[in-house]
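testing teh design pipeline on a random one, pls ignore if ur not involved
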């Protein structure tokens, strides 16, 4: 067994929004026992890599273990804000969907043990 690749949405759901030039993405593991996967996969560095051409400010991740969630805050993410940005879709909702579709790597044996759906 090795490593499997799957979309983040396999193990978590999210809700996102924006205020000015800040994007907030909340991610919650579908099952509490999958929260460690979420914490391991979603890092500030990973988010900076995904949004390298969009986010110019700090990226923070705050763990909310009681609900199996993460609160991700990205500053300098909307070219000054949704009402003045020149992007076609300058909203936090779009960035939340990008995250959920991004690929993550999971230890295959651990994923199988915890009942994570394994892509074929």
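output:
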């Amino acid at each position: 067994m090795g490593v499997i690749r799957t979309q983040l949405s396999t193990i978590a759901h999210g809700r996102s929004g924006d205020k000015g030039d800040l994007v907030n993405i909340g991610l919650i593991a579908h099952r509490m026992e999958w929260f460690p996967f979420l914490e391991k996969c979603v890092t500030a560095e990973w988010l900076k890599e995904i949004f390298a051409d969009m986010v110019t400010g700090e990226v923070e991740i705050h763990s909310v273990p009681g609900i199996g969630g993460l609160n991700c805050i990205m500053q300098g993410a909307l070219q000054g804000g949704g009402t003045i940005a020149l992007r076609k879709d300058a909203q936090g909702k779009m960035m939340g969907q990008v995250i959920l579709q991004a690929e993550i790597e999971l230890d295959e044996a651990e994923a199988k043990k915890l009942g994570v759906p394994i892509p074929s």
